[in-house]
Amino acid sequence: MVLRHSTTERRAPLFPSGLGGRGKVAQRALPVGRYSKQGRTPLSKWARWALLAVAVALGAVVAFVGYRNLGTKPIEAKQTAFNILGDDRVEVSFEVSRDQPERAAVCIIRARSKDGDEAGRREVLVPPGNSLVVETTVLRTSKPPVTGEVFGCSYQVPPYLSTS
């Protein structure tokens, strides 16, 4: 098999000046007074220190807010067991750990139905005591429950739950 190459015609050069595109580019004159010939004057020493202090203070605020939002929680709860007692009731056991066991707390327990809807909810008073407490409660539900869970806990006990 023989390969043949086609011959190409010589065409006119792309850059007629023969400079290969490296010729001088036309420059526009800048408006007078718009751009100065001088560069910026550097910031003074006190201005640099002030900017550094502002940056450090801003970093400290961001760190504090991050710690408050993402740090350890003062009270936490987790579901340890649930038992479905019928089409309208579920028993939920949960464990509460808190950093201030001398304070009463309230936990919101809820039941969910097969379609994921909340079928029941109850606020449970956790009285002052140990730092780790196990509580059990029964929730009445509006639909047949499939699970019971802890929604959350707080030290802000509403007046209608308080024992004092």
Low-confidence stretches: none
The profile of the biggest β sheet is: 3 strands, antiparallel
* Morphology: elongated
The percentage of residues in β strands lies in: 35-45%
**By helix and strand content, what is the structural category?**
alpha+beta
Computed Rg: 37 Å
Number of continuous helical runs: 1
The beta-strand count equals 6
How confident overall, as mean pLDDT?
Answer: 83
- Helical residue percent band: 10-25%
Give the CA-CA distance, first to last residue. Answer: 104 Å
- Return the string of H and E elements: HEEEEEE
Strands of the widest sheet, in order across it, are 1-2-5
What does this molecule look like?
This protein is of the alpha+beta class. The longest helix has 26 residues, at 45-70. The termini are far apart. The strands form two sheets. A three-stranded antiparallel sheet has the order 1-2-5, with no helix packed on it. The model has no long low-confidence stretch (mean pLDDT 83). It is built from one helix and six strands.
